[in-house]
Amino acid sequence: MSDKMLTVSSRRSRVLINSVLVVFSFFWIFPVIFALLGIMKSKKVYNLTNFWEFAPDIQLLENYRFIVEYSNILQGMINSLFYGAVGALIAVIFSMMAAYALAKLRIGHRMFWFMLIYSGTIFPFQLYLIPVFKAYQRVGLYDTRVGMMLFYSAICIPFAMFVLRNFFIGVSDEIMEAARIDGADNWKILWRILFPMAKPSISVVLLTQFAFSYNDLMFGITFTTSSGIKPIMATISTFQDHIPAMLLACIIVSIPSVLLYSFLNRNFDEGIAYTSK
Fold first, then answer.
1. Would residue 3 be called left, alpha or beta, if left means φ above 0 and alpha means ψ between -120 and 50 degrees?
2. How many CB atoms lie within 10 A of CB 237?
């Protein structure tokens, strides 16, 4: 009797969980449906009809021509790919060294240094706008690719350090002691032993930080003015009077993020499990 009750209870729980997931999936997919319906309409039809109505005439090619002729979307995508890839890569390299030092090396005031670095994620990012804006104007980094690359690298380091530190803490010290007995120094231990072990966590960090940098709008608008320097989201923001073209541009520029997620998907779940330790 008890086994039957447990079976019924597990089935009910499964149905409840699946129902909740279906509801969340609908809210997740709804903006995509909205965008797909919108890109089929002309600017005039979009403004005069409801968003759930189908377009009488498909204007997808016309919207694409508008994007190509009146925007610098290709350059914006190249800029964002550069900022996101370089920023995430630099953040991973520096955060790995910081995380290793804070988790495994005997340094003074480790908790102080950890909180100092991690405090970069505590405060709202809007607080950085004015100080960084003024500093960039003084040193000549405003509206430059180097300035954007350095900013995204710096702002990604605290979270990446936090994730990798949690992983390194879970690694047994016996592995490191065995490596030291074999003559390995801290540098070799980090890059030849811990780095291969941390690939799942690194995949999570690369994906999340690339997505943050690639999809950023606030800092891209604030720190750039030239069309050749602007990231992609700042470029798309100039489509405010042509919503169908903006929706089509959003779908196009989302392709790199989807491809990166598909490439790192194998390590994503495993990396989440590591970082939750």
1. alpha
2. 13
d(CA 205, CA 160): 6
Give 189's DSSP letter: I
Which structure tokens are listed for 51?
């968003």
pTM of the model: 0.80
Task: Collect all residues with Cβ–Cβ distance below 8 Å to 74 and sequence separation of at least 6.
Answer: none
Give every CB contact of residue 238 below 8 A, 6+ residues apart in sequence. 71
Tokens 């690298």 found at: 153
What average pLDDT does range 142-161 have in this prediction?
A: 92
Return the H-helix or E-strand segment holding 65.
helix 60-70
- Residue 160 CA to residue 204 CA, distance in Å, equals 9
Q: Which residue has the higher pLDDT, 5 or 264?
A: 264
What is the band of 1 on the pLDDT scale with cuts at 50, 70, 90?
very low
Quick: pLDDT tens for 25-52. 888 788 888 888 888 888 888 878 777 7
